[in-house]
Design brief:
The chain is an alpha/beta fold. It folds into 5 domains: about 5-45, no CATH class; about 50-190; about 200-355, no CATH class; about 405-480, no CATH class; about 485-600, no CATH class. Strands 17-19-24-27-25-20 form a 6-stranded parallel beta barrel. The protein has a two-stranded antiparallel sheet with strand order 1-2. The termini are far apart.
């Protein structure tokens, strides 16, 4: 390309009156300058972040007299931590000292520093480990890491926002008060042997493979709400302790209670996305005798759920859809279990009635997004909203157990409770767990019996009275049709009661009159030369014949075989008719109960 074509040219233009000279830039010159401007501005915008060693970050934290440090737009390289020295603070401090060439001030809490707040914004790193720090505030925002580790960190508040870790994010042997993880993304996350003395909040951070929490302690509530994405996703919480929430701020919700109530939701497992396996194993959920809830809900279906070996002093609320299998085994449940929103789509579920018995099943109601939804109209100070949010994780839950008259006023929750029993009954029946199915049905009918009593006491009416008393009879006679052997025992008892009554009345079948039996008794008790044996034998034979006749009469009346004519007279004749009606009714109930168990 010529110089003229690149930079422009002089063009001479003459006329008859004058000669002028002017500069005209060519289009190629304009293109060159525009391209140069864009190139230099873009190269400045997309230049690589400044590379900084992790030891230099520690140097500034140690030496700075400022209370706040901010690091932004850096590429961090871990130049001194190893798997070995992360487990041994002395080796860690020694390795750091060799890098920064200064003494490391430390105590049992970690490195001593004047810095209270550390901000890390737009940080990039491959494998990076932060360890043995003692801070007031630690914040990560818009970071990109291959692997990220927190080891033996103590902080009042940790805030993570839009942090992306391509592989694993690990928290080990650390202690925090408040911990928030919002809209981040991890392939896997692991928490080991850590303590959260304040509120733990994970909201919609994405997990692509695994999220495990081991041997950790949560003291003031937790909201665990990961969003799972991946071909196989797994959540496991094992060996953790969830302590009672101390906060007890009352709140008035008209749709739940006419009075202000203290609502506490100890932990919420709020699962988003598609989860293959959810496991709660060997955890402890403590309460102080007040109502605290463990709320487990999922926006999508979970293939498999295992809840095994846990201690639930708090109430457990399961509101998930499980598409393949639920294992709920070897748990010690001291609180209530809310199953009204649990959907089991699979057939091979493993449950046992011993974890539910004792009227532990309950229904519940929850106002959605109660404190953060402006449409609810709760005009509360921000401080009070924050306390209520941590105390309830935004879910105020009220249990319905079907134990009091006030509870039975809510027909909707009563029906939810009955439905919970019935669906659990069907699970046991499908599994062939006959005894567990029967126990479930009996307890369900006991709840219904209390409801029938409430209806009669509250509204009266002959029909309500008959239904209430009839169910009482069915419970006493056959455990609502689940126990035919109990019916046989009671029938035998009824048969002998009537036989004793008939014994004192004359019967056409008797060979001796009752007067003759009395005479034989008098002879027996009188001393004579014949001794006692013959009078006793005579008395015993007459007594036995009369008793057998009375039992035969009672049996004949009870089973309604028919007499032709009733072989007795007087009051006993009318009692036979009454016994026939009682026997017909009880035998009909017994037959239905027997068929119910045979055809199970």
């Amino acid at each position: 390309m010529s110089i003229n074509s690149l930079f422009g040219y002089w063009k001479y233009q003459s006329t008859k009156t004058m000669r002028s000279i002017r500069l005209e830039p060519s289009p190629s010159v304009l293109f060159f300058f525009i391209f140069s401007l864009l190139f230099f501005s873009e190269s400045k915008a997309f230049q690589a972040p400044k590379r900084v060693m992790l030891s230099e970050i520690y140097r500034q934290i140690i030496q700075s007299e400022e209370g706040v440090l901010q690091f932004k737009g850096l590429y961090l390289q871990d130049d001194f931590t190893t798997t070995k020295n992360l487990k041994n603070p002395e080796l860690f401090y020694q390795a750091l000292k060799e890098k920064i060439k200064i003494d490391i001030p430390f105590d049992s809490l970690g490195i001593k520093t004047s810095v209270e707040v550390v901000y890390l914004d737009d940080i990039t790193a491959k494998n990076i480990s932060f360890a043995f720090l003692n801070l007031g505030w630690l914040e990560f925002k818009v970071g990109h890491f291959e692997r990220l580790n927190f080891h033996s960190i103590k902080a009042d508040t940790v805030f993570m926002d839009s942090v992306y870790v391509n592989y694993a994010f690990r928290i080990e042997d650390s202690e925090f008060n408040e911990f928030s993880d919002i809209e981040s993304s991890y392939q896997s996350q692991y928490i080991y042997r850590s303590e959260f003395n304040g509120y733990y909040n994970m909201y919609r951070s994405r997990i692509h493979e695994e999220f495990y929490i081991y041997d950790s302690r949560f003291k003031e509530g937790a909201h665990i709400g990961p969003h799972f994405e991946g071909t196989f996703t797994d959540f496991l919480a094992s060996g953790n302790t969830f302590e009672p929430i101390d906060s007890a701020l009352p709140f008035y919700l008209e749709e739940i209670s006419p009075d202000s109530v203290v609502y506490k939701t100890q932990v919420v497992f709020n699962i988003f996305g598609q989860l293959n396996q959810f496991s709660l194993e060997d955890n402890e959920f403590f309460s102080k005798g007040d109502e605290q809830f463990v709320y487990l809900t999922s926006a999508g279906a979970c293939e498999g759920m295992s809840i095994a070996g846990n201690l639930f002093q708090s109430h457990l609320y399961l509101a998930s859809t499980i598409s393949v299998r639920l294992d709920f085994v070897e748990n010690k449940t001291l609180g209530n279990l809310v199953l009204s929103e649990l959907i089991l789509e699979g057939k091979n579920n493993d449950l046992s009635w011993s974890q539910f018995e004792g009227f532990r099943l309950a229904a519940a109601t929850i106002p959605a997004e109660m404190f953060t939804d402006p449409n609810q109209g709760y005009e509360l100070p921000d401080e009070q909203i924050n306390r209520l949010f941590r105390q309830t994780s935004n879910f105020a839950i009220k249990a319905f157990r079907g134990l009091t008259e006030e509870e039975f006023e809510d027909e909707i929750l009563y029906q939810r409770l009955i439905s919970s029993y019935y669906r659990l009954y069907k699970v046991f029946k499908e599994n062939g767990q006959i005894a567990d199915a029967n126990h479930t049905y009996v307890e369900m009918k006991d709840v219904q019996l209390r409801h029938l009593k409430y209806k009669y006491v509250g509204y009266g009416g002959l029909e309500n009275w008959i239904q209430w008393r009839l169910n009482q009879l069915l419970k006493a006679y056959t455990d609502y049709g689940t126990n035919p052997s109990q019916a046989i025992r009671i029938s035998i008892f009824v048969l002998f009661i009537f036989a004793i009554f008939y014994f004192f009345f004359p019967s056409e079948w008797d060979t001796k009159s009752k007067g003759q039996l009395i005479s034989d008794y008098k002879i027996f008790i009188e001393k004579n030369q014949h001794g006692y044996f013959k009078p006793f034998l005579k008395l015993g034979l007459g007594f036995s014949v009369s008793l057998i006749n009375a039992i035969t009469l009672s049996l004949n009346s009870f089973v309604t075989l028919g007499f032709g004519s009733i072989p007795t007279s007087g009051l006993a004749r009318y009692v036979c008719i009454l016994q026939g009606f009682i026997g017909w009714f009880l035998l009909s109930v017994f037959t239905a109960s027997l068929i119910n168990q045979v055809m199970f």
